[in-house]
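Chain A, query sequence.
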Amino acid sequence: MWMGLAANRLHHQNKEGALFEFLRNTEAGIRELNVGFHAVGRTYDAILAADMLQNYAPLLRYPRGSKGGLMKLVAEVVGMPEAGRTLDGAIYLMDPVDPSSIFPEALALKRQCLIHSKPFLSTVASARDWLEMERIHAGLPRDPSADRFHDYEKQTVALIAHDALKPTMLEFVDRNFELLSRFQRRVGTGTTGLRLNELAWSKGWPADKPWVDRFNSGPLGGDAQIADLVLERRCQRAIFFEDPHVARQHEADIQLLERAVTTVTHEAVCTTAPGIAQRWCDAAALRAR
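Chain A, predicted structure.
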């Protein structure tokens, strides 16, 4: 398994940075799974300067972002089979106020991960949760340090889907209804929330009780309302099925929610690809056993 790896300056400028928190908590698992990294220049240099992943052969240095390193990761997510360079996803720890986080190559990296149903992990919490998911699928014992990401009875999950993916969200929830019902609270935007409540009632959920607390529709500010929950640490996981193929009139609101997630990088897990969300659900079920 090979992953792209990059982190904005905020996350590697000192040893308390998010990049190093991720590595401190996951290095054993990285080595167990033999995860390889194509690390963009400054990120690679910071890892070596911090004496982490010492003597780890599958850590490769790519050019700095300003020299095309991030662009190369985008191409490799799509796949460069003739060169034997294909990535299985990307970890890009983003600083929401760093201008480079909205450069074309950063946006393209996320978009291509989404299109090719590969993980795009923009927060420490997402990256740690993903590694634990892969450990569980590999048959390894659960990591107690990851237990806090699975304490669903004390957590809120946001379930959001753009128009073309609403049927996909309904199928996903129907398939994983028992797991998602374990969360203390579920929230959603407008039409998605309405349809999910109708699904829950059809499955025997009490008719006088909403399964999802509904906020406004996305164009009327529902994404912004949920972003506020994320910022207040009142929403710990967002499952946000995005449609990368259409222009969206409320793009700024969507970006607001994404920026909120990266602002609380240590706390919020965000999943945007249906296939990755299902892989997480399958791992959660295995982990619970």
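DSSP finds eleven helices and ten strands in the chain. The CA atoms of residues 10 and 95 lie 6 Å apart.
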